[in-house]
């Protein structure tokens, strides 16, 4: 069964450093998402991406964040200058459609620890 | 704005007990409703969904009915197993947005043999 993959599974970085989280969505999917979950809190939407553009972003997704689909298979989330409060589990998801209750398929997550 | 509220956990049950995890939502329009499950060390998996009022989603013995009059989507299972131990997330996707999911805070279920 096709699945969304994410690398690395765990990333430790120092405050102020740049990190790039990698995701490979399911190959025929067209809609891509990033979510995050701070330990003990709810899963929060960060950004949705379609047709090489951001279609929606949350208040969390400020200028420090960016997304890219560099080569038609990967989907990356970059945090330019990490802060302690960016420590969280980051989930990538993809979907074949964005409406009508279509399922989003989630990756296993990348745990980001900022020290 | 749109939001989802779940009952707080953890919920601890004995095997074969009846499970209910409450979920209520606030949304404009006609959202789609979902239950996702997260097993230890894994990503979120769709458990079931309902896309309009009075629809019942079901999968693996779990059920939830979309109740517009009470804005609820409670998850139920008649007889839980140890293998059902996981974190359960209720979520909605509003009818007018880009498909983003809004999640509840998650409920941890622990089933003891």
What structural class do you assign from the helix and strand content of chain A?
Answer: mainly beta
**How would you spell out the order of helices and strands of chain A?**
EEEEEEEEEEE
The oligomeric state of the chains shown is: heterodimer
Distance between the termini of chain B: 41 Å
Q: Taking all residues together, what is the mean pLDDT of chain B?
A: 93
As a percent range, the share of helical residues of chain B equals under 10%
Shape of chain B: globular
Question: Overview of this structure, please?
Answer:
The complex is a heterodimer of chains A (115) and B (113). Chain A has 115 residues and is mainly beta. Chain A is built from no helices and eleven strands. Chain A has strands at 5-7, 10-13, 19-24, 31-37, 43-50, 53-57, 65-68, 75-79, 88-95, 105-106, 110-114. In chain A, the strands form two sheets. In chain A, strands 2, 4, 5, 6, 9, 10 and 11 form a seven-stranded mixed β-sheet that branches. In chain A, strands 1-3-8-7 form a four-stranded antiparallel β-sheet, with no helix packed on it. In chain A, 34% of the residues are buried. The mean pLDDT of chain A is 93. Chain B contains no helices and twelve strands. Chain B has strands at residues 3-6, 11-14, 19-21, 23-26, 32-38, 44-50, 56-59, 62-65, 75-77, 86-93, 102-103, 107-112. In chain B, strands 2, 5, 6, 10, 11 and 12 form a six-stranded mixed β-sheet that branches. In chain B, strands 3-9-8-7 form a four-stranded antiparallel β-sheet, with no helix packed on it. A two-stranded antiparallel ribbon of chain B has the order 1-4. The A-B interface holds A 4, 6, 31, 33, 35, 41-45, 48, 50, 55-56, 58, 91, 93, 95, 97-109 and B 32, 34, 36, 41-46, 49-51, 89, 91, 93, 95, 97-106.
Which key phrases capture this entry?
heterodimer, A: 115 residues, mainly beta, 7-stranded mixed beta sheet, 4-stranded antiparallel beta sheet, 0% helix, B: 113 residues
């Amino acid at each position: 069964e096709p699945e969304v993959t994410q690398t690395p599974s765990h990333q430790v970085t120092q405050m102020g450093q740049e990190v790039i989280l990698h995701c490979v969505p399911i190959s025929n999917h067209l809609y891509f998402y990033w979510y995050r979950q701070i330990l003990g809190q709810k899963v929060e939407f960060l950004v949705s991406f379609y047709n090489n553009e951001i279609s929606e972003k949350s208040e969390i997704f400020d200028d420090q964040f960016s997304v890219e689909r560099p080569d038609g298979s990967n989907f990356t989330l970059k945090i330019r200058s990490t802060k302690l409060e960016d420590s969280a589990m980051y989930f990538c998801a993809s979907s074949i459609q964005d409406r009508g209750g279509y399922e989003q398929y989630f990756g296993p997550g990348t745990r980001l620890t900022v020290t | 704005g749109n939001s989802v509220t779940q009952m707080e956990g953890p919920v601890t049950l004995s095997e074969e007990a009846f499970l209910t995890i409450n979920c209520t939502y606030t949304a404009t329009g006609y959202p789609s409703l979902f239950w996702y499950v997260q097993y230890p060390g894994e990503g979120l998996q769709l458990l079931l969904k309902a896309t309009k009022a009075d629809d019942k989603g079901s999968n693996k013995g779990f059920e939830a009915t979309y109740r517009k009059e009470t804005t609820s989507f409670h998850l139920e299972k008649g007889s839980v197993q140890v293998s059902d131990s996981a974190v359960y997330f209720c979520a909605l996707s509003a009818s007018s947005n880009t498909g983003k999911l809004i999640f509840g805070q998650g409920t941890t279920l622990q089933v003891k043999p």
